[in-house]
Amino acid sequence: MTETVEKTATGAILYDKAVINQISEERFEGSGWLHSEAVKGSHGSGGRGNTMYVGNIPRQFVLRHFMRGGLIGKLVRDRYLWTGEDNTRSFVEWRLLAKLADNNLRVPRPAAARYCRSGLTYTADIITVRIPAVSPLSQYIAVRSRDEDFWHSTGAAIREFHACGVYHADMNAYNLQIDSNGRLWMLDFDRGRLLPPGAWQQKTLGRLHRSLEKIKTLDPRAHFDEGNWQVLLDGYFSASRSA
User: Fold this and answer.
1) CATH 3.50.50.60: does it fit domain 135-242?
2) pLDDT greater at residue 218 or residue 41
3) Is 234 a catalytic residue?
């Protein structure tokens, strides 16, 4: 993947001409496309209302505006402290996704990223290629019960990411998505990075476990129990031992 950076009046756009050959500021707004629709999902799976599908099938993209979460998000909606172009949320995520996609990990391929600076702060956006026929893990287990092979392969797939040092800052049952072949993909790598092996691996597994337990309380259709979790862990650690 090759990257091109073009300066704008208030910031810059980073993109790959092989993925999206024409880019402009307008493309970072839903109105800049002939077709756009908000990503919707149950129990928060659509993010914070900041994500849209844009473009026409079969070549669609996902446009996401970076929003703050947690307590600080109640005070500062979408602005971040400026510490340099290469440190912007959008450029960091774009470059991480490019590296992971080039190494055949199942993540969205990045198309373009932007930041708009205003004094000591900036806003950010990213456009990625839409992965066809995927659904959040939360939804996938609500449709029907999944067999042991699925949970085992899901654990092994998470281990594949961890073995490559891929740290996902919010590995929950919404950011893990399942395609039509039952394979796992990871989405939304804001604050993600590459790290050496460490305690973060178990912490992210714990984050996923809590997410699945929460979904059980929010959606009575969710098919998940501790037996499923133990099979997932067996898949994870079996992959670890065989690596």
Assistant:
1) no
2) 218
3) no
